[in-house]
Each structure stands twice: as structure tokens, then as C-alpha cells.
């Protein structure tokens, strides 16, 4: 089978190069096209990625191709990933953050798992912090109360967050889910293209929840925890006002499209 993956970058060439190198190093069982899309960085990230691909710093192995695309404007996370949509000819495509690192052939494993489960159109692996701790991420459909809890930590809302992340349920085995994080998502390429990719009306945040709902109209979405990846998870929206306001705007757009849930 043929695989493709996209890493969208903005102003952090060192992080993007580490992520790209780990993808190339560990993806060995199937042909891979890796797209590095620079979202109009202002710090020279675009030229640095081009130079790394040209000089061999990003060592593509037989069957691997690296393509660098420099956008002229920063249209946001979804727009960056949609840049490659017309070019995709793979069987399975991977949406990756630049703060992802692989330590095993997770891309091949997930693609093979999805091939063995034809109803699956989207999936993600278990994501861990660099120190090995498992990340507690949303798994149920996006709703207001757990989002408020995750921003403000109000104790009386904890039970809603527990439901949101499926706390207390066995997440060591594959499970169907309603929210697939955009930090690392595998999609069946034909289904991703049929969905039209990401909604570019979201500049940042919640566009992954939106894409999950579109993919659920075509099939099943899964957590497949036997495959793993490291995710640095910077969580900017939890640290400063600007990203938090952007997340709030995106959440309003999501509820307008898919219906409000407390």
C-alpha cells in the first residue's frame, strides 16, 4: 500500500526537522510521500526545510519522497493540511503535528490495521509525553462543559471531563471514538478527499473535532492504542489569552455547524 503524511510548520524549523526525520527513519514497510508544508513562517523555516530535503539531511530511503511546499500566507492549521489534498494518491494519509516523534513504525502499523478493518476511515494511536506518560485526550464528541473544565479546572465540572476522555473505560484495546485529535490522525485517503479535508473556516483549534464529525458520516473512527507516538503537546491555548480566545471562536463555529452540547 502507499502512504502519505503531512506536517504543517510555522516558525519552528528544528522541531519540524526532528519530526520529519523520525517519520522517515521509522516508516519502513510501505512507500511514503512526506509533505512538509510551511505556513508562511517568518523565521526562515521554509528555506531551511527545502535545504534539508535537498542536501540529504532529511534522508529519504528507497520508496520515500519528501516534498516541501511553501505557502505565501498563513491560512491556519486546516488550510495548511488541505494544501496537499489535490496531490494525494495514497491509500492512507497521516495528519501530523511538528511536535510528534516516532519510535516505531506506527504509520505502517496503523495503515495495516485500518486495511484489516474496512469500516474504519479514521484512527489514532496512543499518544504519550516524552517521559512516557499517556496523554489524556478527548474521545467523545466536543461539548461545552468539559472544554470549560480543561481551560479553568473547575472541580464541579470534572465528571463531564471524565466522560469526555472516557475515564474508567478500558483504553488499552481498540475502541471506537467520536473525537480524533489532529495532532496525529490516520485517514483513509479517499474518505478524507470525499470529506473535502479540513474546514478552513477554523484558523486553529477544534478543526480536528469538525473533521472527525465529517469522517464519521463515512465510517468508523478508532483509537488503536497498540501503536504509539510521542507528542510534546505545547497546549498554547491553556497558557495565554490570545490562543484561548481563538479556541473559543472555533468552538462557537463548531457548535453552529454540529449542534450545541453542554
From TrEMBL:
Domain Glycosyltransferase 2-like: 4-193
Protein name: Glycosyltransferase
Enzyme class: transferase
GO MF term (any one): glycosyltransferase activity
SUPFAM superfamilies linked: Nucleotide-diphospho-sugar transferases
Presence of the UniProt keyword Metal-binding in the record: no
InterPro entries linked to this entry: Glyco_trans_2-like, Nucleotide-diphossugar_trans
Lineage: Bacteria, Bacillati, Bacillota, Clostridia, Eubacteriales
E.C. designation(s): 2.4.-.-
Keywords: Glycosyltransferase, Transferase
Organism: Candidatus Faecalibacterium gallistercoris
